[in-house]
From TrEMBL:
Family: Belongs to the D-isomer specific 2-hydroxyacid dehydrogenase family.
Organism: Phytophthora nicotianae P1976
Source taxon at top rank: Eukaryota
Domain (D-isomer specific 2-hydroxyacid dehydrogenase NAD-binding) ranges: 83-242
Protein known as: D-isomer specific 2-hydroxyacid dehydrogenase NAD-binding domain-containing protein
Amino acid sequence: MSDLGEAQYILGWSIVRDRNDRSIFIHQEKYATKVLYRFSYLNAHPVSTPTDPSTKLAEAMFPQTEAEKDSMKVIPYRETVVRKPFQYCGSDVTGSSVGVVGLGRIGTTYARMLKNGFNCKILYTGPREKPENAKSLGGELGSVEYVDMETLLRESDIVSLHQPLTEVTRGSIGAKELEFMKSSAVLINTGRGELVDQDALVEALQNKAIAAAGLDVTTPEPLPPTHPLFSLENCVVMPHIGSATVKTRQAMADIAVANHVRIKITF
């Protein structure tokens, strides 16, 4: 492409040749189409990328507190783009199998978002089958299935914990359960820290027995700064702020008041 400089001028963006000198990278689809047509690349098709990462990156560029600044991890740009272009690539959520452990109010809402928003197959488990909750998710028959814990762990790409913490559920995910999971699977815990054997999780992450973990809860809370989970590149730890939005906190207060009134009326 001899007129690369002119194309860059028209776009207002940098255009970069691929290493094989047979292709170029152009940002912004609406402009890319014009440029490809202008320079007779009539058989070329622009490839769109998701906009959501841009939003997340924009948010990440402006940490609100010193703690957030300290906790940010910087991915080396040159290493990602030039040397190892697939090193930091993740897996798609769309079309994956999601295992929901505990299909209660929160678990059902989570499953509905994944099923209807990302066309995921939902597997769920718990003390008993919940056909009404499963039916409320809508969609095709067979896209929601009640299974035992082992089946859920073996077949799910994402395992998300939504159980209450009881003597029965404590340590639900231990070394044996982590071994059942796919090496490409991700464990999400937004329930309670003690649902997971944390030492076993650290070992599984270190050995790449599972791909990654996302934790909004830990044992204890907060974790000491020297805890090994913080040193793992395949683990994201949040300080129990998954529900930290104004609307959610207001809803939690409303539920608490409604429960108080209901108990008072009962007695």
